Amino acid sequence: MKTKLLLSLLLILGLSACSGVGSTPAPIATVVLDSGADSPAPASPSLGGVVASGFVTPSEEAALAFGMAGRISQIHIAVGKTVKAGDLLVELENTALQIELAQAERNLKEMTSPTALAAAQLAQANANKALEDAQEKVTGLGYARASETRIDNLQAEIDLAEQALARAQDAYKPVSRLPDGDNRKATALYAMTNAQLHLNNLLAEYNWLTGKPTEIDAAITQANFETAQAAAREAQWYLLALQGQELPPEASGAQLAALEAAQNALALAQERLTASRLLAPIDGEIVSIELNTGEYAQPGLPVVFISNVSELQVETSDLSEKDVVKVAAGQPVSVRVDALGQTISGEVINISPVASTLGGDVVYKTTLRLEKPYPEGLRAGMSVDVQFGE
């Protein structure tokens, strides 16, 4: 078949060359060669979509540093060990801090013991009783000190006492000139003196019952009431604090301040001891330990690195600003891992709202979730190519 096509082509070219001079050249016919089954098929059109490069990362990572300076006393883990969130990893020398915490716990325990609670309840009861007494005295400032009947009876007693005094004075006059030591003069003088004293007492009582308190007396009575009122409030606030109930913002008092100081001392001791220990914040694997036992740790400098390699994801590194507008959270993706020669399905879980630059181009990092089970040998750090779904 190929031979026949070649001969036909040569014949056409020869006829064209033998045409006369000046004649219009005949157009050369287009020849299509049928290559048959052995010829390559035409290329398929591109499937389109957005592509980007990236790498596999752990879903969680943590770099742990101490909150205080100190010498490392114990390391409870090793590189490659799997840990759970909350596990104790490394400790500084903290014996003094443990003693400080125990003392703070002891002090607060004493202040909140059943005995202390009972004493606070008794103190509140006494304060309430003192407040009631002070309230009665304040109320009494606006009322008479005795009933009208009592005052009328006292007036009658005064009248009788005045009459008795007059009779005693009349009885004394005839004997007043007798010499001192005379029995009659002494008896009359004694009777007159007693009559005068009795009248004076009755008049004093009458004046007190019918009189009004002075401004100083009223001020003292009011001040005593306000003091008792404040003491009752403070006793109540302290009791509420011991019972663990919520206090109003204006709560105050010496006992309450002492209790809050003990609570703050305990919290500070706990915080200081916590700063001397590194606890795992996530489940994961120990990747690196930067210091050894006996070495000095500086606050804020990472000592232990943890990665959660049981949960892997992909982060893209070169998704352009033109392509990011075609990507959305929840969009399916295909992730090609060149090192394994395998493709993993997944989806977009996050698109960075902030751009970065790569070789002068503006790019956005996207984070992708990978479907499980992961292929054998998949590790953090492997490079991938990502095909975003349409």
How would you sum up this structure in a few lines?
This protein has helices at 2-17, 95-111, 114-140, 148-172, 183-210, 215-242, 254-275, 321-324, and strands at residues 50-58, 61-65, 70-75, 82-83, 88-92, 277-279, 284-289, 296-297, 302-307, 312-316, 332-337, 342-351, 356-358, 361-363, 366-370, 383-388.
List the helices and strands and how they pair.
Elements (H helix, E strand, L loop, with lengths): L1 H16 L32 E9 L2 E5 L4 E6 L6 E2 L4 E5 L2 H17 L2 H27 L7 H25 L10 H28 L4 H28 L11 H22 L1 E3 L4 E6 L6 E2 L4 E6 L4 E5 L4 H4 L7 E6 L4 E10 L4 E3 L2 E3 L2 E5 L12 E6 L2
Antiparallel strand pairs: 1-10, 1-16, 2-9, 3-5, 3-8, 4-7, 5-6, 7-9, 10-15, 11-12, 11-16, 12-15, 13-14
Helix pairs in contact: 2-7, 3-6, 4-5, 6-7
